[in-house]
């Protein structure tokens, strides 16, 4: 027996060694949650990209899990963290930043980048898209499925109403008049314009306020300015589209069915995320155009959409692998593919310089509108306690649009609520 | 000595029998309840500081939270709108498909179909029914010249729209219980009543309905629980809007816990819901049970 023991030990050791070397070859497993907010077959696009990545990087496995809309994805990720099953990375709402920081869930990309090349990558995106992802000079969010609000218009409806089909409204007055003209010309069959007021009312309102030269929040996320006269004027204009101009239906307009409304030509214009562009292009059986949002004193739209975040609770190896994946996903060629397949923006100037996207933009000019609008863009409403703050503003917008309160009263109430929520955060 | 031992043995045996259920109940019902109660006495951590004990402050805040009262009122109206209607409808449908009827199997299945659909799927279908311009309802109404009802976007109509969908979803489920009860009813009762020349109306109110009371009680409790427990459709249809017009208690709990990350306030609302439900259940079992005939 004794003589055999060394042999037994050595086989055991050999066994251990072999499992260890197998472990070194085992791919790094990454879990990623991601949202889709505009419907359509975007999950297939993401799955395709992930598959390509895995083919090129056999040492990394990415489990990409579709988690619903932005809110659902936040819930999924936060529950996973609490259950000790934190993902290594996720695409989440760009405005979740302050809350993720407060929950101590995410880490800055600055802590993971090592080489100069990687640092240069951090600076390769459109600055307007980085606004929602940076705090105190550190980068926490890398832009991925990013959008602005654009205006889709039905050229045939414009022609039927005696308007120039190729000229979208430049400013608020023109939009109201053109929309009313469409409504009149169609004998009440068709609405002039629809701005959705469920889902993300604060986002649409932010666009209107910014077009009126007003920002709704401070840069550090601790103050909001909802009851400013410029904001009140913006909300009054929105309400007047239904009440005075008879160009938009009364009440709250559903975000989720709006695209269908536009496709079935029940409205001649809609304000919606540029993320709908490809779906509208594929399904519209009429000629349509895409334009920047009209202006009051200036052009303007908030950016929107999802960023990549790195989560803290992961090994260094996983963090490096996650960054490899994020760099791959946001590289110009992939950003171009993603933009063409969805309508979301190419996130860097380099993406628009790729042959694929350059060609696409040439044959389909609407694809460049969101990019061109970037220079008029502002950060999406993002503050501490963002959920409550947005809810307060959403309620105000809906209360005004449904005629429960005057725009001034509604915004004053939202401001009071927001101030009491943010009391603890003022620096 | 011997008998005492046997007695202990029996006791031990009894405890063993109860153990599986007790463990499940303790882990999944009592512990979370206690945990919720404790949580409701704190406010959440703030910028790295640990959570702080505040006693009943959350409950005080709740009393002065106008949204909470609006949501509670909504939920009361929602219960009032869904429970009696879906029970009456379920009973009516059960009586109909219990009678001799051509294509009875098909009708039964048709009534039961909404129950099989997941709530989220059903809500997605109904969202397009309700869509103001392109939806089924407004297209039908436009034939008779009514137009422009914004079913989910008008705060005066939105809650009713949500109620109608819930009734549609639930009635078929409750019908199954009534149908089962009707089928197990002795046919002699009907024969005797026919001999006596009792009208169908008084037979229903004097015989059928009282005999169905256990089922009604069961369905009533289920309907009440559902009125508080099922809010899946709100995620699709309205997200509690416009301006909280369709917000219900559990959805408000969800908002606080997951949109606002205020778990302790969510716990506070949960405790209040639990108390109210416990009270209602006690009332039902004491008052209604006495008036219920078990065969």
TrEMBL record, chain A:
**Gene3D superfamilies named in the record:** Periplasmic binding protein-like II (3.40.190.10)
Top-rank taxon: Bacteria
Q: Report the leader peptide range.
A: 1-24
Instruction: Tell me, in one coarse class, where this protein mainly resides.
Output: periplasm
Write the record's keywords in alphabetical order, separated by commas: Signal
- Subcellular localization(s) per the UniProt record: Periplasm
Task: Kindly state one GO CC term assigned in the UniProt record.
Answer: periplasmic space
Q: Which InterPro entries match?
A: Bact_solute-bd_prot1, SBP
Asked whether the keyword Signal is assigned, the reply is yes
Please give the family membership noted in the entry: Belongs to the bacterial solute-binding protein 1 family.
This chain belongs to the protein called ABC transporter substrate-binding protein
Specify the species: Vreelandella salicampi
TrEMBL record, chain B:
Family annotation (InterPro entries): MetI-like, MetI-like_sf, UgpAE/MalFG_permease
Instruction: Fetch the CDD domains from UniProt.
Output: TM_PBP2
Keyword Transport attached: yes
User: What GO biological process terms are annotated to this protein in UniProt?
Assistant: transmembrane transport
Cellular compartment(s): Cell membrane
Question: What's an example GO cellular component term for this entry?
Answer: plasma membrane
Topological type in the membrane: Multi-pass membrane protein
Give the protein name, as stated in the record.
Answer: Sugar ABC transporter permease
Q: Which organism is it from?
A: Vreelandella salicampi
Q: What is the lineage of its organism?
A: Bacteria, Pseudomonadati, Pseudomonadota, Gammaproteobacteria, Oceanospirillales
């Amino acid at each position: 027996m004794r003589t055999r023991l060394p042999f037994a030990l050595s086989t055991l050791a050999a066994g251990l060694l072999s499992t260890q070397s197998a472990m070194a070859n085992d791919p790094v497993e990454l879990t990623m949650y991601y949202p889709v907010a505009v419907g359509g077959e975007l999950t297939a696009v993401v799955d395709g990209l992930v598959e390509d990545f895995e083919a090129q990087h056999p040492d990394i496995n990415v489990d990409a899990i579709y988690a619903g809309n932005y809110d659902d994805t936040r819930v999924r990720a936060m529950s996973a963290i609490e259950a000790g099953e934190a993902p290594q990375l996720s695409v989440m709402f760009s405005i979740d930043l302050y809350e993720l920081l407060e929950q101590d869930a995410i880490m800055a990309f600055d802590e993971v980048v090592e080489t100069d090349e990687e640092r240069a990558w951090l600076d390769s995106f459109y600055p307007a898209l980085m606004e929602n992802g940076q705090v105190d000079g550190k980068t926490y969010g890398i832009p991925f499925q990013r959008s602005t609000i654009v205006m889709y218009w039905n050229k045939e409806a414009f022609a039927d109403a005696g308007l120039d089909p190729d000229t979208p409204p430049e400013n608020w007055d023109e939009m109201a008049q053109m929309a009313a003209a469409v409504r009149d010309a169609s004998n009440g069959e068709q609405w002039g314009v629809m701005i959705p007021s469920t889902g993300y009312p604060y986002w649409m309102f932010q666009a209107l306020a910014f077009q009126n030269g007003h920002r709704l929040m401070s840069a550090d996320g601790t103050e909001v300015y909802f009851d400013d006269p410029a904001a009140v004027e913006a909300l009054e204009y929105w309400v007047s589209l239904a009440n005075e101009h008879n160009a938009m239906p009364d009440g709250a307009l559903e975000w989720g069915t709006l695209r269908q409304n536009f496709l079935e030509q029940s409205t001649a214009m809609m304000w919606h995320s540029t993320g709908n562009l490809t779906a509208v292009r594929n399904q519209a059986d009429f000629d349509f155009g895409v334009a920047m949002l009209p202006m009051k004193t200036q052009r303007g739209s908030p950016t929107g959409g999802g960023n990549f975040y790195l989560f803290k609770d992961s090994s260094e190896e996983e963090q490096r692998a996650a960054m490899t994946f994020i760099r791959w996903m946001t590289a110009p060629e992939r950003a171009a593919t993603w933009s063409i397949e969805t309508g979301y923006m190419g996130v860097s100037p380099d993406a628009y310089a790729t042959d694929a996207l350059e060609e696409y933009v040439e044959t389909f000019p609407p694809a460049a509108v969101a990019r061109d609008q970037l220079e008029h863009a502002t950060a999406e409403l993002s503050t501490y306690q963002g959920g409550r703050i947005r809810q307060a503003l959403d309620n105000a917008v809906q209360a005004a649009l449904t005629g429960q309160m005057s725009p001034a009263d509604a915004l004053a109430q939202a401001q009071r609520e927001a101030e009491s929520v943010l009391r603890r955060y003022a620096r | 000595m011997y008998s005492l031992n046997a007695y202990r043995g029996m006791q031990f045996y009894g405890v063993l029998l109860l153990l599986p259920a007790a463990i499940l109940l303790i882990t999944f019902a009592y512990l979370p309840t206690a945990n919720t109660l404790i949580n409701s006495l704190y406010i959440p951590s703030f910028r790295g500081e640990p959570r702080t004990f505040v006693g009943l402050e959350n409950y005080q805040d709740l009393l002065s939270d106008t949204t909470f009262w609006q949501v509670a009122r909504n939920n009361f109206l929602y219960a009032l709108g869904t429970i009696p209607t879906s029970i009456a409808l379920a009973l009516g449908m059960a009586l109909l498909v219990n009678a001799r009827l051509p294509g009875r199997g098909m009708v039964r299945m048709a009534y039961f179909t909404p129950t099989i659909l997941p709530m989220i799927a059903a809500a997605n279908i109904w969202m397009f029914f309700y869509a103001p311009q392109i939806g089924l309802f407004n297209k039908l109404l436009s034939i008779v010249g009514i137009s422009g009802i914004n079913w989910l976007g008008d705060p005066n109509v939105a809650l009713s729209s949500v109620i109608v969908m819930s009734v549609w979803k639930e009635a078929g489920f409750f019908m199954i219980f009534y149908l089962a009860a009707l089928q197990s009813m002795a046919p002699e009762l009907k024969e005797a009543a026919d001999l006596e020349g009792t009208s169908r109306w008084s037979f229903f109110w004097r015989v059928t309905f009282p005999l169905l009371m256990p089922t009604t009680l069961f369905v009533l409790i289920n309907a009440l629980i559902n009125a508080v427990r099922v809010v899946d459709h709100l995620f699709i249809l309205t997200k509690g809007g416009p301006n909280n017009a369709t917000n219900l208690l559990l959805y408000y709990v969800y908002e606080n816990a997951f949109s606002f990350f205020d778990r302790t306030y969510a716990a506070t609302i949960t405790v209040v819901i639990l108390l109210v439900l416990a009270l209602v259940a006690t009332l039902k079992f004491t008052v209604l049970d006495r008036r219920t005939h078990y065969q």
